[in-house]
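Final report, closing paragraph on structural work. Over the funding period we assembled a curated collection of sequence-structure pairs, and we close with a single example.
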Amino acid sequence: MLILNTGGTFNKRYNPLSGELFVPKDNHAVEAIINSLVIDISLHGILYKDSLEMDDSDRELLAQTIAASEEKVIIVVHGTDTMDLSADTIAQLALQKTVIFTGSMVPFSIDPIEATANLAMAIGFALRSCSGVYIVMQGICGQYNYVRKNRECGKFEYV
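Its predicted structure, as stored:
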């Protein structure tokens, strides 16, 4: 199993000098979670961006990385605002792999509960799923085209 870290709110940290949240260019949040697990998971960081800053070239890099990987099960830690766009890009490849997108609405550095729960759920879901592209967020697990962020309610739901 491979986790690809692209950044997003999941990874954000507070900068006390500027008073702003930023996406660091490291894997600290994901590492803090997987280091406590007993299964072997590889981790690779590739973008370190808020998903609102991602563009087609970033999605192409993500797609190439997933397609080139020998792993058959890949979890993508991604920002919540455009994870559906990235998931659709990956689905268009029609790979014989299981690709799970997850993230967090609250940064791990501020409150680790949601990020930890979402990543742990994504890992468990990935181990039991068939090939395809899925989104796992806030207790919702499903094919990418049936799970969306409801911005009015601030939560994920089936559509």
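The first strand starts at residue 2 and ends at 7. The longest helix spans residues 112-128. We thank the funder for supporting this effort.
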